Fold:
Amino acid sequence: MIGRLNHVAIAVPDLDAAIALYRDTLGATVGAPQDEPDHGVTVVFIELPNTKIELLYPLGENSPINGFLEKNPTGGIHHICYEVDDILAARDHLVASGARVLGGGQPKIGAHKKPVLFLHPKDFTGTLIELEQV
Ligand code: CO
Structure:
């Protein structure tokens, strides 16, 4: 059911420092920061030959990554995103398998303007999983 790894998202406490690290130290192609008010984050995309890295930085007081950064003050891997062909079919299969789909199971439009869903990390070996329909 899942296809390619679309991206790995890393929550960071200092966006400028993380941009400099990926652009200058690691030599990657780093995009411009984009505010995503619907998701409470500022996102920076880093294009790699085979996948993307998303840097996530809190936007607003109620950002969903504030709690993560409190627990992980130096930052850390927040979620990984797998591609699926049909997000509703994927959701139905997951729910039938007993997995918890966050947000009531209704896909939202993600940072790439495509439908996404998140799966409960406790059902997936401690990893928050995002599914993106491509
Ligand atoms: Co993501």
In short: The two ends are 13 Å apart (CA to CA). Residues 33 and 44 are 5 Å apart (CA to CA).
